[in-house]
Amino acid sequence: MCKPRDRSEPKLPHITSPCGECPFRKDSHAGWLGRDRMAGILAADSFVCHKKKDKQCAGFMLMKGEESTYVQIAGRMGIDLGLKGHELVFESRAACVDHHCRED
After folding, report:
1. What is the pLDDT of residues 57-76, one digit of tens each?
2. Entry pTM
3. Is 52 domain-assigned?
4. How many domains are contained in the chain?
5. 45 lies in a domain?
């Protein structure tokens, strides 16, 4: 006998809004990661949450938008990620990188 099909909507493991310690938030600690580290993170295709390492980071997905592989996959699967908090993250990559620049 066949098992009944699971008719629930597919889900992907991700955070829906930037956490209080998200490095992509405008109110994150200035100089926290350093310019090179943040530039490297923003150059990546995806980024997991630094607190919940089994889920994609909302701040990263909000910053990268359709350039995020995770966002692209969700779109192809017809999954609404329900991301919110765009006003909390930097408006541009340059602003984010500059914010994380350490003054040594």
Report:
1. 999 999 999 999 999 999 99
2. 0.87
3. yes
4. 1
5. yes
